[in-house]
Amino acid sequence: MPNPMKDAWRAGRAVVNGWISIPSAFGAELMAKAGFDALTVDMQHGIQDYASAVACMQAIAAHPVVPVVRVPWNEPGIIGKVLDAGAMGVICPMVNSAAEARALVDACRYPPLGQRSFGPIRAAIYGQAGSYFATANEDVAVIAMIETKQALDNLESILDVPGIDGVYIGPGDLGLSMGLQPMLDRKEPEVLAAYDRVLEQANKRGIIAGIHNATPEYALTMVQRGFRFVTVYNDAATVATGAIRDVAVMRKG
Amino acid sequence: MPNPMKDAWRAGRAVVNGWISIPSAFGAELMAKAGFDALTVDMQHGIQDYASAVACMQAIAAHPVVPVVRVPWNEPGIIGKVLDAGAMGVICPMVNSAAEARALVDACRYPPLGQRSFGPIRAAIYGQAGSYFATANEDVAVIAMIETKQALDNLESILDVPGIDGVYIGPGDLGLSMGLQPMLDRKEPEVLAAYDRVLEQANKRGIIAGIHNATPEYALTMVQRGFRFVTVYNDAATVATGAIRDVAVMRKG
Amino acid sequence: MPNPMKDAWRAGRAVVNGWISIPSAFGAELMAKAGFDALTVDMQHGIQDYASAVACMQAIAAHPVVPVVRVPWNEPGIIGKVLDAGAMGVICPMVNSAAEARALVDACRYPPLGQRSFGPIRAAIYGQAGSYFATANEDVAVIAMIETKQALDNLESILDVPGIDGVYIGPGDLGLSMGLQPMLDRKEPEVLAAYDRVLEQANKRGIIAGIHNATPEYALTMVQRGFRFVTVYNDAATVATGAIRDVAVMRKG
Amino acid sequence: MPNPMKDAWRAGRAVVNGWISIPSAFGAELMAKAGFDALTVDMQHGIQDYASAVACMQAIAAHPVVPVVRVPWNEPGIIGKVLDAGAMGVICPMVNSAAEARALVDACRYPPLGQRSFGPIRAAIYGQAGSYFATANEDVAVIAMIETKQALDNLESILDVPGIDGVYIGPGDLGLSMGLQPMLDRKEPEVLAAYDRVLEQANKRGIIAGIHNATPEYALTMVQRGFRFVTVYNDAATVATGAIRDVAVMRKG
Amino acid sequence: MPNPMKDAWRAGRAVVNGWISIPSAFGAELMAKAGFDALTVDMQHGIQDYASAVACMQAIAAHPVVPVVRVPWNEPGIIGKVLDAGAMGVICPMVNSAAEARALVDACRYPPLGQRSFGPIRAAIYGQAGSYFATANEDVAVIAMIETKQALDNLESILDVPGIDGVYIGPGDLGLSMGLQPMLDRKEPEVLAAYDRVLEQANKRGIIAGIHNATPEYALTMVQRGFRFVTVYNDAATVATGAIRDVAVMRKG
Amino acid sequence: MPNPMKDAWRAGRAVVNGWISIPSAFGAELMAKAGFDALTVDMQHGIQDYASAVACMQAIAAHPVVPVVRVPWNEPGIIGKVLDAGAMGVICPMVNSAAEARALVDACRYPPLGQRSFGPIRAAIYGQAGSYFATANEDVAVIAMIETKQALDNLESILDVPGIDGVYIGPGDLGLSMGLQPMLDRKEPEVLAAYDRVLEQANKRGIIAGIHNATPEYALTMVQRGFRFVTVYNDAATVATGAIRDVAVMRKG
């Protein structure tokens, strides 16, 4: 079980990612059939915990989509758990320094690259236990969120930490940290300049960059800008806006 | 706690209903905020059981929306349970005869109108236990699905059963039963004629008629036709079609 | 694993029963330590389903208390499931005729006494599978609720059905059926006369009678009257009234 | 999504089935990887309810194994729910007469063959909604349990009901009904004679016969006898006997 | 959605708080109706996790009660999660130094006051996303537990950390730390002197002080002493003591 | 409620331990009946979270088996929670230094030995709250995993930390850390030499040593070597290998 997301990156293709905030394996299945390259269970801001994240990963395993988890925080306990449960990618919020990046790699990589503990109880179901170990350090995508001014200040040293595969921009928090309102699909020149700097430094090191978006239309512009992991869909937002729209049609009618 | 859905019907207004198929209280909350008059937890075809139905009703109770449950079948055990848990309306599938309509009323109404057992454990939280009993037979909406040729054949006798507040057309099953494909938002003249007959007979007896729809646009035409309970939104369909649409935008881009 | 509840009845002692309406194994444990003879998971009016009932029975198994389940209705599927999951007693609502009593016995007793299907998956954990079968028909308590005028009319024929161990009076529904308000701890002479008739006919046949009460004080009078299975505690009521009382102390203070 | 189990039957091959009694999607995944042709979630005697059955079916969907559910009883509500949730086979306990077989078919087949209500919410994820409907009546396996003397007496009329694909022998209950102990892997001549009669009558009508076994060794003899759906593994028994064995090794050592 | 708890404090009123230890949304609803000003889900010592905490907060949202969570520990991952899920107050155990108080504020406040990550997925349901952000730093109550001698030693520096709204005394742990038995409703002079010192220093800075109590009678004395957040009720204790009392009545009778 | 595991150690007997990876209370019950001295819920690599760990501990409480939890990481929040929920032993992964051992003891022991917060909500159900406190520091087994070269380097200082009752070897991670493949039941001389060194240093201090094994046969050799806590059974492995074996028998047949 190689990681198709990494194949895409090696081929220069952008990975289209969906976002699972609703803690329902059935909702996850509906999304998995839609053709995303990857689906991310959001354990940070989503209404998800470990049990629901596992259920979502089980439910999407029947479909050709890479299971990714955004962990709630840079804590080795939960990072190890989601990897053992089969996540092929980990997105970690608030990686603001090289030390934090190093801690993230330690939690995600087996020795000698890191200090992940061995026991891929569900992850190894889809391969042989031996083969999982043989390739996990290569296959698992480790993605650090760059979402503060501090992270931008430390960008190069963060990116220099061996074992980081990608960075992921959180436009809401990054804006907040820059004294702006929290929002997605941003257009402020200073923000876009920061994006370009992240892309440039990441590309230079063979690291991909990703970004969280509110709409596929904006996400397309980000792919053109150079991002290779773009989130374009959020189940909770879709449920809410669809409901609001349908009610509005009725109230007008 | 009178039932605002019944107030709407008394005032001649149509009730706009959403459909909860995903077993998530959080998803239900998102819908509850959108402005529906009612939300129905679908325990028949939805991925819902009693526990998830209760959780959904708890989650929407903070919003001015009437909790309705479509039960899996015309069985008194589960009907009593959802009413005790606070459903202010019950939609029952496949009511094909006066005897089945009578069984439905028996399960939903306290004596002497029916044989519902007393114990409104959660329903009474929102009122006094005594006041719930005093008005439950009046407030609870009992809605029988008319969705087979047999039901159409027995329509008058079904509608004559005291205690039925409404009928609800299931266009998929009704079509199937008429030898057509199962689908919603139908336009076949013989189907529309059946709808009109249901409306006519129901109106004659002060019973409202409702219908399951795929789109609010079609639902508006049904309101004009005379339906007073129209489902216009389904969370599962919304999650799926939104995802397919967003992926398509990306693949084209 | 003989059934201590039946031992008590054979010895002429009354069984003190608690009522589990809150679907929490932890809450059930708290009750199990209090010294009840039996605890009943209420799947009819309680916020309980099969999964929560199993969890409650697992949680109380460490304590010397007999696990009983009130099933939602006289349906063989759920009756078999709770027995297989370890219930040593079944209380069935709304047994209004000999035919319904016979159906209840069929669901609870192995052939040749009834038609229960063999597979005591959890029940047999606490004995040997072979020994469970050998004594289950003797050990399981089958208790029919007498809670309508119709049941009173059919009382003798219901009690004559072989395999019924006990009857249980639901004062709320019985009152409703007699044209009274639904309430517990009743004092109307015609109701008490009905209780006495149930006691007399049951005793005559070696069947015990039980009753649902709101307070232990009233329950004691029922024990004196002859009842041998008395419910005296309800977790939901206790949580609610305790909270109301404590808030009142504060508001006065 | 044709049903590989039916393909096997058409080709004369026996289907090797595993039995899921532990309500854990993770346990189900472990089994799904072992190479069974089918896995059956046992909602009758297993510690399973609808929610856990759905979770198990979601978890095994990534593997080439046919999802089957044994329902708790011959009740249309739960039968429709498990089919809508994706079961490709239904095993129904205690089908003792042609009328009960007819009710089972009604619950499992769309009109005009039966009266199943349309709404394959999860089942259709793995195909197009339209294509599911087109082939469901052909693809879904409807399997009636023959496990009482009464069923043997009515065998021919049960098998003559159109829409039954298979019968499944429950050796425990069948033995009980014949006045024997409940057990599996039976060797009594009168029981084996009954098996042969079932096989003969089923084969004559193009219906397959299946049987519940405790060991694969015995199951092989049943395949040779003519059974084409053989259960050979039970997760709960495996957990228990494995634990007992390992503890015994330690206590001896 | 301003925070009524903060309004009370501004008006000098004491907030009456209940404690949810049983992981049941239904139990929480029963409490919510009793008239508490606030209800706290105890994720530290209660049998609560994130999923049950969310369910409890959903269930009480229909009632005018402020949702508070005591987190298991001073860890940013879980603090962010409960705030995003709608907690309007956070009680954090074992804040023993200014550095720990600063970490707590960082986890609870958006920049520039702290480093909370933006994504109020459920919290924003009850307002507009924009309006939640605008007022969250003002509305969310951040409450540090003072429950060790070390915390008393560092009291002034802890209280000087900007962004702390309140302190909460844990009498059990505080006693333990002072070499006494762990208990509530304490009367030792040295303990009461410590309480008074906390009150004095907190008041001086416009910070409220709260305390955990076993009885409303004792809590009233604490209100008179100056505490403005008093816990007076615990669901688990209520279930247990009520059961013990009712059983005792029966055993005596 | 003294801890029988500690009694065994005082008597020089080895404790036979089973491993619960499948998040099912029912599976745990099956294991509990098999005669293990202890059962460990694996929250690190098992598919377990806090809620499932509590359910497993509730389910095994009816059997004479000591409940142990392997926590996901050396974090005080979760350690306190599992102890409050009734764990009588804690196994903590990756204790690599005296400081980490000290943190573990702080999380597990009440003052003055450590800094555990008082609130044994479920733990105290099985004794009196007062008696739990009186003996918890003595009864709870605190077990540090030695599973890296770094831990071996720091072995003596780790073992010198007051309050550590035992060490537990993780052969997979230890091997990894030594540049070997991750596996159990190891035979490499350098690994066995490390085991002996751990045993010698632990014994010298009255600390027991334990080890994770794949088979009881190997575990017996470890008991002879001096280990006094040996894991011999894993539910997930048992389910998987049993299924593979039974399918293989069928495919050969």
From TrEMBL, chains A, B, C, D, E, F:
InterPro entries from the UniProt entry: Aldolase/citrate-lyase_domain (IPR005000), HpcH-HpaI_aldolase (IPR050251), Pyrv/PenolPyrv_kinase-like_dom (IPR015813), Pyrv_kinase-like_dom_sf (IPR040442)
Domain HpcH/HpaI aldolase/citrate lyase intervals: 28-232
This protein's record includes keyword Secreted: no
SUPFAM superfamilies: Phosphoenolpyruvate/pyruvate domain
Keyword rRNA processing: no
GO CC aspect terms: cytoplasm
Protein family per UniProt: Belongs to the HpcH/HpaI aldolase family.
Protein name per UniProt: 2,4-dihydroxyhept-2-ene-1,7-dioic acid aldolase
